[in-house]
Write a structure and sequence with these properties.
By secondary structure, the protein is mainly alpha-helical. Helix content is about 65%, strand content about 0%.
């Protein structure tokens, strides 16, 4: 027989999953119902602030741009991990502080590595 607490926990997880699914699906359904459809030759035209475009929109970015973006994304996500650690300080606050310092130190080494590789230097064309 399944206990009442276990069923309550499963219900909570199921509700969270359904809420997450609703947050993903409902905006797409609403935009499908509300958006005005356009037809004609200008539908596929490039629009840049109401001005005519100059040249091709298909330009090639250097790899350094993508590496820079990935480094930013990685550090942005890693900073999110610091908030739960800061909130969970409790009985072992000094140990947690040392772990955070080690974590930030490893991130700093990654920044130094990227800096020495020249990722943060933009070369002019």
């Amino acid at each position: 027989m399944v206990s009442q607490k276990l069923m309550t926990d499963f219900l909570a997880v199921t509700l969270y999953l359904l809420a997450g699914l609703a947050f993903a699906v409902v905006p797409m359904i609403i935009s499908r119902l509300v958006v005005k459809r356009s037809h004609g030759e200008f539908r596929e035209a490039t629009y840049e602030s109401g001005m005519e475009t100059i040249g091709s929109a298909w330009i090639q970015f250097t790899v350094a741009y993508y590496i820079y973006a990935l480094i930013f994304l990685a550090f942005d996500v890693d900073v999110l991990y610091l908030f739960p650690v800061a909130l969970s300080y409790g009985k072992y606050a000094s140990r947690d502080l040392i772990e955070v310092i080690i974590f930030v130190g490893i991130l700093s080494l990654a920044i130094v590595y990227a800096w020495r590789k020249g990722v943060f230097e933009w070369k002019r064309r």
